[in-house]
Amino acid sequence: MSVVGAALEQLLRLIHRRTLKIAALPEDERDSHYDLIRLSCCAAAEYIGQSPDEAAITANDMVQFVRALVGIIEVGGGSDQERSADRPAPTRHFGSRENSTTGM
Q1: 78: left (phi over 0), alpha (psi -120 to 50) or beta
Q2: Which residues of the chain have pLDDT under 70?
Q3: Distance (Å, rounded) from C-alpha 67 to C-alpha 38?
Q4: In whole angstroms, what is the distance from residue 24 CA to residue 78 CA?
Q5: CB under 8 Å to 26, separation ≥6 — which residues?
Q6: Which tens digits make up the pLDDT trace of 78-97?
Q7: Could you say which of 28, 41, 73, 74 would form a disulfide bridge with 59 (CB–CB 3.0 to 4.6 Å)?
Q8: Do 19 and 73 contact (CB within 8 A), yes or no?
Q9: DSSP state, 24?
């Protein structure tokens, strides 16, 4: 695996763990965690050479992504471990015609 691939895999694992922890919190306690993600992401983006403005955009995009994942977890009823055995995981249909915006 390439260095970039390994870094991406590590980042996704981190996001997954963080998202599960945030989803377990009451809604009014989540903002400080989103702020920490924003600060960390912004610093990392600047470290790799993005301008402060680009880094802020990247950090905000990451926070929006984490918020969306938290929403998915809430709608889905929690993590895989919390899902009951009689309720199977939803089937993914990436690229299927049902998900197409053209209606083909």
Answers
A1: left
A2: 78-104
A3: 12
A4: 8
A5: none
A6: 545 444 444 555 554 444 44
A7: 41
A8: yes
A9: T
